[in-house]
Amino acid sequence: MVAALCCMVPAMAQKNFGSAKYTAMCSYYGETITGDIIAYESGTTVQKAVAEIMSVIGLKPNFELRVANVPNAAAVVIKNKRYILYNPKFMNQINKASGTNWAAISILAHEIGHHLNGHTLDNVGSRPQTELEADEFSGFVLRKMGATLPDA
Question: Under the GO molecular function aspect, what terms does this record hold (predicted)?
């Protein structure tokens, strides 16, 4: 589901968010992201996956989803607006390596967990405790969506 359009990047709606050094990101692997962030409109399949994630927890998204030149995925606040940025090549590779679309769904849920748990509000970025909390949220969401333990 997610892999099908993760790798399709629309040519329109490119936006330069500015330099990453001015933001504290909760990136998926916890690494520091530097340089300029260029983002694009997200594909409809990924938007649908996020809508499914949000529907199982009964909340509306308080963030925007964007394809971006990040190494993997990140939850970030830029100019007082919440975003989930993701690299479609990374998402495609992780799904291919795992043999399932649950991998990308898990990553998206993890990043959503950062926003919903308030991790992006303290301007600190990734740290072990917040990464574990986002992982726990992701696991909760996967179970609610019907993933089995081997899927997760």
Answer: metallopeptidase activity
Q: pLDDT higher for 142 or 22?
A: 142
Instruction: For residue range 41-67, list pLDDT tens digits in order.
Output: 888 888 999 999 999 999 999 899 999
The mean pLDDT of 25-39, rounded to a whole number, is: 67
Both tokens assigned to 58: 């009964």
Rounded to 5°, the CA angle 101-104-106 comes to: 105
pTM of the predicted protein model: 0.81
- List beta partners, residue 37: 18
Residue type for position 88: P
> For residues 88 and 8, is the Cβ–Cβ distance under 8 A?
yes
The full 3-state SS of the chain, as one line of letters, equals CHHHHHCCCCCCCCEEEEEHHHCCCEECCCCCCCCEEEEEECCHHHHHHHHHHHHHHCCCCCCEEEEECCCCEEEEEECCEEEEEECHHHHHHHHHHHCCCHHHHHHHHHHHHHHHCCCCCCCCCCCHHHHHHHHHHHHHHHHHCCCCCCCC
